[in-house]
From TrEMBL:
The keyword Protein biosynthesis applies. Gene3D superfamilies: Bira Bifunctional Protein, Domain 2 (3.30.930.10), Nucleic acid-binding proteins (2.40.50.140). It catalyses: tRNA(Asn) + L-asparagine + ATP = L-asparaginyl-tRNA(Asn) + AMP + diphosphate + H(+). Residues 249-576 form the Aminoacyl-transfer RNA synthetases class-II family profile domain. GO terms for biological process: asparaginyl-tRNA aminoacylation. Belongs to the class-II aminoacyl-tRNA synthetase family. It comes from Papaver atlanticum. This is asparagine--tRNA ligase. GO terms for cellular component: mitochondrion. Keywords: Aminoacyl-tRNA synthetase, ATP-binding, Ligase, Nucleotide-binding, Protein biosynthesis. PANTHER family: ASPARAGINE--TRNA LIGASE, MITOCHONDRIAL-RELATED, ASPARTYL/LYSYL-TRNA SYNTHETASE. Its EC number is 6.1.1.22. Coiled coil: none annotated. GO terms for molecular function: asparagine-tRNA ligase activity; ATP binding; nucleic acid binding.
């Protein structure tokens, strides 16, 4: 018999290393259990015991009696000793029953990317002779008589890894037979060597290539250029193109830079709700959220519950009242700014505006900081600092992508962004802006007068023509064209609101000092009672009842920021999956 130790007779044993027959053994204070040889061979909880003995055949053996002891190491029991036959017993790992079904998770390791291989000042020359593995998708393929070139892109950067393979390499037949085509995913192992071509400094001399996923010949994204309009119909594949891969990386950098700026300046990120009963903008262009129509496809209009006057009975709905997808997280952010001082939101917002233009989306992302104990001047200072910070961040961290945009999308975009990062912004009042437009020697499609909303053509003229590409902040708008929550100025006609205009895009940010005076806020809400249900904002009014403070904030449409930073003209190309009227695919 072999003595085993543990809390339960169901113990597994595994051979680790051979120990000397004279090894001293130490028993922990646990009960002993004995097993016959058959129990070792048949018990599913036991691994084989390895003995250096002639009786060891096919993982089955006679279990001799053995004396020894165990000690505990790292929550496991180890025993070793000398068998009665004189054979050395290899160290045995005895695992408690609670551990029998566990498996250690391996350590996570960051994958070596093409951007790391080819990045830096050396552009990969410091890695010559290194053996590496690259995984990605085939962009181009060129078969010659004695050698084949193919380029692999893993999405980490604009550059491809040029791979050179000859017939001696393992897996060459997959290329020769046409099994590997453009669009296929592959794993390539090879050695980094100096490139003979002029387009790159290094290339990969292939030792082995393996197809992970083959690509059908109908793959729509080949080397030839295709239009952005076509690629919008292939939103699931367009990230594999140079343009949309670069847009995605710059978008990522802008998002990271956004969090970095606010976190470094003491802001707290707040997750505001997507479903809401209030309309922050008061425009009424919201998507309704309801369960009254069941699955929404097979339901009949007659199944919708109604009140006595034939209107919809919202009390039967999921929330017991009308609910909508949010157009802004601002009002909710104000509640946390009233407790945490400086906060910001960064999340999706929605607007049911039936507009098919290059400037509008039904679903878009908003960045909305809210600053307590702040006025409009503080708000403008924060907006300016934020924009300059993220622009610098992109210029410093997305150089290859920005060079691509500078060459292929908008000539001079790098100079334009450097202007924004370095210059002081111009500030003028709405009244001054209107006078500037009225004096302009240009005919606008939309006439200009005091009290009108400034249109995109007006905004672009101001920042591009009047101020030669310098960002402009317009402040103190007429209250009748702005939202109810904006603080009324002493003149009674304007509010402490501001818009930040940038070249090519026009309005990039809009903000204001919020009305912190309860009486004036209620008065303004009463003026707008036809479009605004005051009862839905009782919680918002409470913020003014209980410890009100002057506070301010702004909102920035993230996709417009992406447009501004990349030169992409259509906003539908600045978001991975655009949602527009009549289109909600993918």
């Amino acid at each position: 018999m072999l003595a085993a130790v543990g809390r339960n007779p169901k113990i597994k044993l595994s051979c680790l290393q051979t120990l000397s027959s004279t090894t001293n053994l130490y028993f922990p204070p646990f009960s002993f259990h004995s097993f016959s040889s058959s129990s070792y061979n048949n018990n599913k909880y036991l691994r084989r015991i390895c003995l250096v003995s002639p009786t060891l055949t096919s993982n089955k053996f006679d279990v001799p009696s053995y004396t020894g002891s165990c000690r505990r190491r790292s929550a496991r029991f180890f025993c070793s000793g000398t068998s009665s036959t004189g054979a050395n017993v290899e160290e045995l790992e005895l695992v408690d029953e609670k551990e029998t079904n566990t498996k250690k998770v391996r350590e996570f390791r960051k994958r070596l990317s093409v951007s790391e291989i080819k990045g830096g000042s050396e552009q990969g020359m410091d890695r010559l002779g290194q053996s590496i593995v690259v995984k990605g998708w085939v962009r181009t393929l060129r078969v010659q008589s004695s050698i084949t070139f193919f380029e692999v892109n893993d999405g980490s950067c604009l550059s491809n890894m040029q791979c050179v393979i000859n017939s001696d390499a393992e897996g060459y037949d997959q290329l020769e037979s046409g099994f590997i085509m453009t669009g296929a995913s592959v794993s390539v192992k090879g050695v980094i060597v100096a490139s003979q071509g002029s387009k790159q400094k290094i290339e990969l001399k292939v030792v082995k290539v393996n197809t992970i996923g083959k690509s059908d010949p109908s793959y729509p994204i080949q080397k030839k250029r295709v239009s952005k309009e076509f690629l919008r119909t292939k939103a699931h594949l367009r990230p594999r193109t140079n343009t949309f891969g670069a847009v995605a990386r710059v978008r990522n950098a802008l998002a990271y830079g956004t969090h970095k700026f606010f976190q470094e300046n003491g802001f707290v990120w707040v997750s505001t709700p997507i479903i809401t009963a209030s309309d922050c903008e008061g425009a009424g262009e919201q998507f309704c959220v309801t369960t009254l129509i069941g699955d929404g496809i097979k339901s009949s209009v007659n199944s919708i519950p109604k009140t006595g006057d034939s209107s919809i009975d919202w009390s039967k709905d999921f929330f017991g009242k009308p609910a909508f997808l949010t157009v802004s997280g601002q009002l909710n952010a104000e509640t946390y700014a009233s407790a945490l001082t400086d906060v910001y939101t960064f999340g999706p917002t929605f607007r049911a505006e039936n507009s098919n233009t290059s400037r509008h989306l039904a679903e878009f992302w908003m960045i909305e900081p809210e600053l307590a104990f702040a006025d409009l001047d503080d708000d403008m200072a924060c907006a300016t600092a934020y924009l300059q910070y993220v622009v610098r961040y992109v210029l410093e961290n997305c150089k290859e992508d920005m060079d691509f945009f500078n060459s292929w999308v908008e000539k001079g975009i790098i100079d334009r962004l450097n202007n924004v990062a370095e210059k002081d912004f111009v500030q003028l009042t709405y009244t001054d802006a209107v006078e500037l437009l009225l004096k302009a020697k240009k005919k606008f499609e939309f006439p200009v007068k005091w009290g009108c909303d400034l249109q995109s053509e007006h905004e672009r003229y101001i920042t591009e023509d009047a101020f030669s590409g310098t960002p402009v902040i317009i402040r103190d708008y007429p209250k009748d064209i702005k939202a109810f929550y904006m603080r009324q100025n002493d003149d009674g006609k304007t509010v402490a609101a501001m818009d930040l205009l940038v070249p090519r895009v026009g309005e990039l940010m809009g903000g204001s000092q919020r009305e912190e005076r309860l009486d004036l806020l209620e008065l303004r809400m009463d003026e707008l009672k036809e479009t605004l249900n005051k009862d839905s904002y009782s919680w918002y009014l409470d913020l003014r009842r209980f410890g009100t403070v002057h506070h301010a904030g702004f909102g920035l449409g993230f996709e417009r920021l992406v447009q501004f930073a990349t030169g992409i003209e259509n906003i539908r190309d600045a978001i991975p999956f655009p949602r527009t009227p009549g289109s909600a695919e993918f």
